[in-house]
Amino acid sequence: MKKHKFRQETEAVHGGASLAKKNGPLSTPIYQTSTFEVTDMQEQVRATPTDSYYTRYGNPTNTAAENAIAELEGTEAALLFSSGMAAITTSILALVKAGDHIVAQRDIYGGVIRFFSQWLPKLGIETTFVDTNDMEQHESAIRPNTKLMHIESPTNPTVRVVDLEKIATLARNHSLITTIDSTFATPINCRPAEWGIDLVLHSGTKYFGGHADIMCGIATGRRDLIEQIHHLRTTLGCCMDPHAAFLLLRGIKTLAVRVERQNENALGIAEFLNQHPKVTRVHYPLLKKHPDYAVAKKQMAGAGGVLSFEVEGSGADACRVAEALNLFTLAPSLGGVDSLVTIPVLTSHYLIDPELLKKMGVTAQMIRLSVGVEHVEDLIADLERGLGVLSRKRDQVGVAG
Questions:
Q1: How many other C-beta atoms can be found within 10 angstroms of the C-beta atom of residue 310?
Q2: DSSP SS3 for 289
């Protein structure tokens, strides 16, 4: 873990860049090229392990973004990928082999659950899923062939917060590699490496990009792990395009101010929903009744821009509420400046086994919000109108009776 020179807002704008005075472009140039010219074959050999050989191996624009991310996370190195799932799958595949075993939370993104439960077994790699914050379950699941422990915090969509210090200590005692999907947190709210986590993963499509216009995956952590992952990324070819890396760098510059606003907006909305008569439950870590409130206060500067809540009635009622919203756009994904709404059982957790959904606490009545940077009072007014469809339904039933 590296020491930080500046505060996060400054690192987001300048992190990874030389501050020496120079005559040159203020913004990092886009090296929009697939290959690089050399003067002779000896230089060709020297260039191969660098970012000036072939863009599948590396690219100067991508390197600038990777350095900025490592600076923000306080890690030794970082790698970019073509998507968040590419970052997770490539990283995991680089760190385990046939016969190895993984311990993972069951309360994680649906695509990662499918990767662990459907694809890794074909390669001879088994995963045991455990309750998110049950450390005894985590420890009892460890086997002699366990190689890796994977967590997500905050989780999707129930927004549980994992005690990173306890996980890191447990894994270290058993010589395990720890990986975390920290997409919901961002380094503005939490830096997992500071708590002892080895490898931090992000869907950079979300908060790092911030404008719903790029696909991006990130792995950042110990240099030895990043080097292992880089070898496999070069083979699989799931690198990031340099133009997208340029847009990523632009998004990173406003990451801190966006996340701070989204933190404020999401907390205000969570408090509003927590008092609404048609809402049966609100999932947001900085509500005092949330089961992980103490952990969130300990290790997070803010709880992020994602929250979920459950409404009275059925799954159809939840859909009616989501469809009645105007400022919250009905769309998957999260983390951008625009507020979004979705139904997890129909999107991120579609096709997940119903029994597993029950254990995760994901219900048909659950609505997930990705809170943007609009004015919080406008967003609350939109939710008030949307939830009104539940009252109108009851009124209509009463009249008909």
A1: 19
A2: coil
pLDDT band at 397 (very low <50, low <70, confident <90, very high): very low
How wide is the angle at C-alpha 52 spanned by C-alphas 51 and 56, nearest 5°? 60
- For residue 293, indicate whether it is catalytic: no
Between helix 242-253 and helix 255-274 the angle, nearest 10°, is 70
How much is the pLDDT for 395?
47
Give kind and range of the element (H or E) at residue 357.
Answer: helix 354-360
Of 206, 233, 258, 278, the catalytic one is 206
Q: Are 303 and 271 in contact (CB under 8 A)?
A: no
pTM of the model: 0.91
Determine whether 253 is an active site residue.
no
Q: Which residue has the tokens 């809540």?
A: 309
- The model's pLDDT over 240-250, given as tens digits with 9 standing for 90+, comes to 999 999 999 99
Contact of 131 with 163, CB cutoff 8 Å: no
Q: Given the residues 51, 100, 107, 181, select the one marked as catalytic.
A: 181
Residue of 31, 53, 109, 284 marked active site: 109
pLDDT (tens digit per residue) in 348-364: 777 778 888 888 888 99
CA dihedral 88, 131, 125, 97 (to 10 degrees): 60
The secondary structure element, H or E, covering residue 146 is strand 146-152
340-342 vs 101-105, strand pairing mode: unpaired
Give catalytic status of residue 289 as yes or no. no
